[in-house]
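DM between two lab members

TW: hey, do you still have the LPS export ABC transporter permease LptG entry open?
JB: yeah, one sec
JB: this one, 390 aa:
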Amino acid sequence: MHPKAAGGACGRGCGPGRRSAGRPLALRRSKMRRAVLSRYVLRLFLGRALLTVAGLSAILVVFDVLANADRVVGGGPGVMLPLLTYALLRLPSVASLIIPLGVLLAAMTTFAQLVTSSEAVAMRAAGISVYRLTGAAMLGAALIAVAHFWLANVVVPEAAGRLRLWEERGFRGLPPLSTPRRAPTWFAVGHALVHVGHSSLDGHSLYDVTVVRRDTDGRMTDFFSAAFGSYEDGLWLFRQVARPGLNGQSPQDLSEMRVALPVTPRRFSALSGKPGEFSFGELWRLSNSPDVADRPAYFYNFWLQRKIAQPLGSLVMVLLAAPLALQLARRNRMLLAGFAAVFAGFLFFVAERLLLALGETGLLPAAVAAWIPAAVFSILAAWVLLNLEG
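TW: and the structure you got?
JB:
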């Protein structure tokens, strides 16, 4: 057959221009398929993560309520309302603690479903690499990390402060509607040490106050006690002041005395709570104002770093579970990979707790103690993923 005749049978549609025009269309379709599959993995992971975190948090809160039900109910009349109130105030702290574990389990079940249903094989045949699957889950983990940061720095300090005061009252009545600002028993302000017998709920009134002033070398330069103190016009006004004689000075009894202590009632909520209950803003102020604190500066620096590192642990959990997407759909292989992911997550939590003690005591630099677990386990998980994919 003549070449022209053969070519003529193909027609205009087989020309080079038509073939080149079809390539961008195929590329666009391929990109659309990849985007759709990535969104599918993202939705699947987020749904499982929310269900897992909600379920685990509910179980732990129920156990907590059962363990403390006698104290909560014994504080006053009623049964269901105090127990429900206690559960709601405990829920934010429990959820903040359980989120990384929930993300690990959600990532494991997501990748396991993709493998056992052969969806992972189909996705890889369509040009979706395991890195893209992991990236979609990592995007979901990043969204969860943002929500975790908000929960730990906005909701948890408010709920934990109210629960702490309610517990100090013996669970009588109902908890306060806002976070208490009562002064701690001991705290440092500048070069002074302050002891407070008790204070009002808003922190504006102090009772049975003792103030010890020191020089830069820590030697006592002044000492006085007062029956009552109140915060007025930016100064602390103490009444019924007794000042014993120091360095040859005669004792003094004053009806009132104004003192400029660099602390306000708003700072008491940060000084009296546990470190995990501090918000990021409170830790920032305490780390940059070590003169107004009851703990060393390195303590607040560590917790400031940890407030950022802890939510990012969700990203590490996804990396630990990612090798599951490369396993064959065989029960023994999946069980082995799942056990390895759970064991790696357990080691991560153990390392976090060990370095928590070292960071709080200043035995390790704050950044090292806060970030080493996430950095080391992320590198190891990425190395395993690269080797398995290769």
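TW: got it. The radius of gyration is 30 Å. The first helix runs from residue 3 to 10.
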